[in-house]
Design brief:
By secondary structure, the chain is α/β, with parallel strands linked by helices. The chain folds into two domains: about 150 residues, Rossmann fold (3-Layer(aba) Sandwich), CATH 3.40.50; about 130 residues, Rossmann fold (3-Layer(aba) Sandwich). The protein is built from eleven helices and 14 strands. It has a six-stranded parallel sheet with strand order 2-1-3-4-5-13, sandwiched between helices. Helix 1 packs antiparallel against helix 10. The relative contact order is 0.12. The N terminus is likely disordered.
């Protein structure tokens, strides 16, 4: 009997041990969420670490990579970027890009900036798809990447600062074009590069509008890689090939003035018009001459300013722009549609009445 009681006692002890072991396992699992919470806190703390960098007096390092150096549009954007950097405790350590559109060179410049220890990189790319792996690698390396002007929406970039919705601006250009040619005639479309998602969206929107006008014929769509001289040559060839051509519509800032120059050189002022996206400083003489009836653009300096401001704010506290974000007297107010990571600065319509009122 005593042996029986002893055996029962052993069984009970074994059951208790198993129970203790079984209860201990969930304790180990519950520690995993705690670790996850710590990781989240660590992630949230990253901007604070950057804030301490600024507090120490060391400026944030900002790099800017554009799709084409020497383009007045990007020079104005860089001026705005440097203005914001000076005001917000940052330094533009590099403003660079290829002399003509070349995404492979863009990739090299971005990689160099990562190596140089840039805190943030602003990118305006010639190819929204090919640049994706490089942007993602920079983000993985801890660099805050923002796009501006031309987006790479399928990348891991944090935010894009651009101007007006590409589809809306393309639709407006298409409607203006149809009105200017009275809904009939031959027209040619011009773009910077076919690898740009933003420019392609504008082109598609123009075509969608013109599809509603059966008497308007799109005779050609030419891409100049944002090279002014190349665009002039393309426009000259189109004027010769299509003697009844009535208009050019361009979705990149080099297009309207380049086409206008070709129109003027061919002695076609009053017969062919040029319109689209363009800098008032480059187009004012053609607006005055009646070759360009109207232009659409935005202040590229404001775009550069707001892009740097967004990047510095992110480095300081981890925040991204919200709708109605106020960047002061120069930067203005940003429009951020719900559920997006894209901010728009306002567009401006330029005509004879106001084209001389702007410096860019």
């Amino acid at each position: 009997m005593k042996q029986y009681k002893f055996l029962v006692a052993l069984v009970l002890v074994a059951i208790m041990v198993i129970g203790v072991i079984g209860c201990s396992a969930p304790a180990t699992e519950s520690s995993a969420p705690a670790a996850s919470g710590d990781a989240s806190a660590s992630s949230d703390a990253s901007p604070a670490a950057d804030a301490s960098k600024a507090a120490s007096g060391e400026p944030y390092k900002i790099g800017i990579v554009v799709k084409q150096m020497g383009a007045p549009y990007f020079d104005y954007a860089a001026e705005g970027a440097k203005k914001a950097a000076a005001e917000m405790g940052a330094e533009v350590i590099s403003y660079t890009g290829p002399s003509s559109e070349d995404v492979n060179q863009e990739i090299t410049f971005i990689e160099d900036l990562v190596t140089q220890g840039a805190d943030a990189i602003l990118v305006s790319t010639a190819d929204s798809t090919a640049i994706i792996p490089t942007i993602n690698k920079a983000m993985e390396a801890g660099v805050a990447v923002f796009t501006f002007d031309i987006d790479a929406p399928d990348s891991d970039r944090l935010f894009c600062i651009t101007a007006g919705d590409a589809i809306e601006s393309g639709t407006a250009i298409g409607e203006s074009l149809a009105k200017q040619v009275d809904g009939k005639g031959q027209v040619a479309l011009l773009t910077g590069g076919l690898g740009s998602e933003t420019l392609n969206q504008r082109l598609d929107a123009i075509k969608a509008v013109l599809d509603k006008y059966p008497d308007i014929e799109i005779v050609a769509t030419e891409a100049c890689d944002d090279n002014f001289e190349k665009c002039v040559s393309q426009a000259e060839n189109l004027i010769q090939t299509y003697p009844d051509l009535k208009a050019f519509a361009g979705v990149s800032s080099v297009n309207p003035p380049a086409a206008a120059m070709a129109i003027q050189s061919a002695g076609k002022t009053g017969e062919i018009i040029s319109l689209g996206i363009g800098l008032p400083s480059q187009c004012s003489e053609y607006v005055d001459a009646g070759i360009i009836p109207e232009l659409t653009l935005w202040d590229p300096g404001v775009m550069g300013y707001d892009a740097v401001a967004a990047a510095v704010n992110y480095l300081k506290d981890g925040s991204l722009p919200k709708d109605g974000q106020d960047y002061g007297e120069y930067g203005g107010t940003l429009i951020v549609p719900d559920g997006t990571t894209v901010g728009y600065i306002p567009s401006i319509i330029f005509t004879k009445d106001n084209v001389h009122d702007y410096e860019f």
